[in-house]
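FORM 12-B: Structure-to-Sequence Request
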């Protein structure tokens, strides 16, 4: 076996030779002094792209989300979020530790919820209750199978948030995918939110990096908290250069990843003992179920690994695959062939 077909996540994408060149050529300085010109350019570019006053480069999507939550809340506040959301479930309990907040998880439909559900979740003004302070929306929704959050559902949530004095943050780790799939610009999607986090390290080939965008006052607070957690990086321009390159060259091509996921879903639907809701595949994430084969997701995953295909088991019988720029259409055919063999037993 020469190499693995790695469908575990789009975080595995690596810099292209052109991106490498851009990184090596980067002008750098000490970003803790605000003197890295490439970091500054990336931040300005991201703020422009998302239609916000300013931006801050941070190490990861987790850092972007958690520092945003911290900057929006006081300890004891409650954050309204979808029950399967990344910021609540997969960030090491950071909400409790970093911000002292608790989460109220709304059960969504593939991660999507509406204003009526938010309204029912907002606490009344009573000493027994925490203060509802922030609404978090994940777009696309990871555990929702890469579901795109419709803008038409976001606007009424924004109206409600404004009426009730709540703030809104978008976990846009894969906002780029949502924009490409829905034909909506990043600025249009970001407009109803007080803050947005976006990732450069998912599907875009960058080695590291995320950004938070928002108002100058908000980002000033995030910047202070980034310092507190040791997130100030020095000559980070080498990393920022990859981000600039990716924003210029790797967004439009995400459409290809979405076609790969649809192709894969179509193939999986024809494999015996695989259960998949093909029509739900909107972007680059898909889930399938192996319960009919009477095997666990871990067993199937281990067998696939032996044959060169890497996937991610997310529940007892549920497996996630994510398409990206480092798997080709031919790789998808090969992966389907391997899955078919393994599911036959
Ligand atoms: N998700 C990763 C890992 O959790 C496994 C993945 O492979 O999907 N928000 C969303 C919606 C995410 O999917 C992720 C990463 C993050 C935030 C956190 O980003 P990082 O990993 O950069 O901290």
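FORM 12-B RESPONSE
SEQUENCE OUT:
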């Amino acid at each position: 076996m020469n190499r693995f077909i790695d469908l575990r996540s789009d975080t595995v994408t690596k810099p292209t030779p052109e991106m490498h060149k851009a990184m090596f050529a980067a002008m750098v300085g000490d970003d803790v002094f605000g003197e890295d010109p490439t970091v500054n350019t990336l931040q300005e570019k991201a703020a422009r792209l998302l239609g916000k006053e300013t931006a801050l480069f941070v190490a990861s999507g987790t850092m972007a989300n958690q520092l945003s939550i911290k900057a929006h809340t006081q300890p004891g506040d409650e954050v309204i979020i979808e029950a399967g959301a990344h910021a609540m479930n997969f960030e090491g309990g950071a909400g409790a530790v970093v911000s002292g907040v608790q989460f109220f998880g709304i059960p969504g439909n593939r991660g999507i919820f509406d204003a009526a559900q938010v309204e029912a979740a907002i606490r009344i003004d009573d000493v027994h209750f925490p203060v509802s302070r922030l609404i978090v929306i994940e777009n696309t929704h990871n555990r929702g199978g890469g579901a795109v959050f419709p803008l038409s559902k976001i606007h009424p949530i924004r109206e409600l948030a404004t009426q009730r004095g709540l703030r809104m943050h978008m976990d846009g780790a894969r906002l780029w995918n949502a924009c490409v799939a829905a034909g909506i610009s990043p600025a249009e999607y970001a407009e109803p939110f007080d803050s947005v986090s976006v990732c450069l390290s998912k599907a875009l080939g960058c080695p590291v990096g995320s950004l938070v965008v928002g108002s100058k006052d908000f980002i000033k607070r995030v910047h202070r908290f980034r310092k507190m957690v040791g997130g100030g990086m020095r000559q980070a321009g080498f990393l920022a250069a990859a981000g600039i390159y990716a924003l210029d060259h790797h967004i439009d091509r995400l459409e290809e990843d979405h076609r790969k996921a649809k192709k894969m879903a179509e193939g999986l639907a024809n494999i015996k003992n695989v259960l998949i809701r093909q029509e739900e595949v909107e972007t680059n994430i898909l889930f399938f179920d192996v319960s009919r084969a009477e095997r666990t997701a871990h067993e199937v995953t281990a067998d696939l690994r032996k044959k060169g295909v890497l996937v991610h088991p997310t529940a007892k019988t549920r497996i996630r695959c994510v398409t990206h720029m480092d798997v080709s259409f031919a790789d998808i055919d090969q992966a389907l062939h391997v899955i078919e063999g393994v599911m036959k037993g």
